[in-house]
Amino acid sequence: MTQSRQPVYSMTGFARRSGRVSETLGFSLSLKSVNHRYLDLHMRMPGGAEELEMQLRRLLKEKLRRGHVEVTLNLERSQKADAGYDRALVAAYVEAFRAAAREHGLAGEPDLNAVFRLPGVLLAEAHSGDEEMQAIQDAALKEVDALVAALNAMRAQEGKRLADELRTGMERVRRLVDEAALLREKVQQAYFERLSQRLQTMVDGNFDKDRILQEAALISDRSDVEEEVTRLRTHIDHFTGLLDEGGEVGKKLDFLLQEMNREANTLLSKTSGVAGNGTRITEAGLAMKAEIEKAREQVQNLE
After folding, report:
1. What is the pTM assigned to this prediction?
2. DSSP symbols for 77-146
3. Does domain 13-81+128-151 have CATH number 3.30.230?
4. Pair 101, 108: CB distance under 8 Å
């Protein structure tokens, strides 16, 4: 039985779920994910939600692998909620203002608008009681599976787009490698023939022609890029195979691209200074490096 292909996930995504626990109190729970080397959970919770935060951390660590994930819980009170204020707290703020004014010899009265913006003054903004927070916690935890599914749906969609772009980029690299492979034999032959012709004009009784030609062949061999071409083709096949396999492939792909970049650098060092088709191989090598670097930027966002 053939194993089903796993999606390739981007680390970029967003999802939100909402619910109500009473006629006057609702909530929204959201996940926002961007790329990160590891799983980094950042919680934005209202006061009193410490237990919910711990449970969310545990659940999300089981369901997500990588990414900087912002988890935000917002409480939403309807207009029917009590919009009164804490009279004792307001009186304390006003008295503190007036005492400070007298102590420092300042004139003026407290601004009521400013007082009402102080923490805990408006009852509708006060921290939820234990019963309310428990109800919110229970309701929010029930939304986690659907929330993660929605996040992963967006991340899978973005991951597919990135995977398609990476496949296209690897095909461009493959064509450049094939071009270098076609040119290498002509470069090697031309390089050897040019050295041979130059040496022929210098040969007299004091030179061992065969030995000099052997040394010329050795130099020509050192400029050959066959090994680099072979390894690049192998890396490309491995790269596209990982994309087809799916799953958590970002780090593996990044490692392969580092190896491909190393082979391209070696290819360039071998063809540097070789005229004719050698220059064309150098141009192909530079184009390979540009494609590889572009691919490295893209795989940084894959899980």
Report:
1. 0.68
2. E-TTS---B-HHHHHHHHHHHHHHHHHTT------HHHHHTSTT-BGGGSPPPHHHHHHHHHHHHHTHHH
3. yes
4. yes
Handedness of CA 41, 45, 50, 56 (dihedral sign): negative
CATH number, domain 156-299: 1.20.140
SS3 226: helix
Contacts of 255 (CB under 8 A, 6+ apart): none
Classified as helix, coil or strand, 42 is: strand
CA distances (Å), origin 90, targets 87, 97, 229, 230: 5, 11, 78, 78
* Residues in CB range of 189: below 8 A, 6 or more apart: none
| Domain parsing of the chain, residue ranges | 13-81+128-151, 87-116, 156-299
Contact criterion met (CB below 8 Å) for 195 and 223: no
Q: Are 239 and 170 in contact (CB under 8 A)?
A: yes
Beta-carbon-side half-sphere exposure of residue 80 (alpha carbons within 13 Å): 5
Which tokens belong to 271?
A: 């063809």
Per CATH, 13-81+128-151 and 156-299 having the same topology is answered: no
Average pLDDT per run of 10 along the chain, which is 303 residues long?
70 94 88 93 89 94 92 80 69 84 81 73 57 89 95 94 96 93 70 63 58 55 74 95 92 95 88 65 90 95 92
Torsion of CA 14, 239, 242, 296, to 10 degrees: -20
